[in-house]
Amino acid sequence: MTLSEQKKGLIKICHSIHSKGMVSGSGGNVSIMVDGGILITASGVSLESAAEDNIVFVDHQERFSGPIRPSKETMLHLRCYAARSDIKAVVHVHSVYSVALSCMRFAQESSIVPAYTPGYGIRVGKLPVIPYFCPGSEELAMAVSSSIAERDSVLMRNHGLVAVGRSLDEALNLAEEIEENAKIHFILNGMGTCLTDAQIEELHANYH
Fold it and tell me: Fewer CB within 10 Å, N- or C-terminus of the chain?
């Protein structure tokens, strides 16, 4: 696949993320692994406006060329790729219900929300939330990548969601699964029945 074709695939996902309401303004950022580095969305550009001329190539040493700057979360993306060799795509979104979860007081940091559906139980399980760090900071990049070294998704306190995958579709599907479960959580308002640990273990035993 050529670099242009890879850019077009990234752009398609960016437009899909925006159309699904998972970001607003210039929020969120998306990247894919390519030879020698990553392709990542530009700083200050809405995912709705993603185009070939504002997708930036950044090498593994965070170097880029040209007038368009990559996302301020580039370090976070690169650290995620360095954490695991199977990661080929990183999606960071500010979807409303996931962000609301990340802002909840008294939430358990190791598992911020129960699993309500089998799909969520299998793909996500116990979703952790890391402490707040300034966007674009090394501290945030380190905290996210440390979690991603062990799993495919993490919430950032008062910020949003990071999901990774072997493809852009896989990473986005995971982000959507989390957003749906978060929405269910708020709709139920404490009145729902969640899956038990035993039921989640059974799912993993049957489907993995």
Answer: C
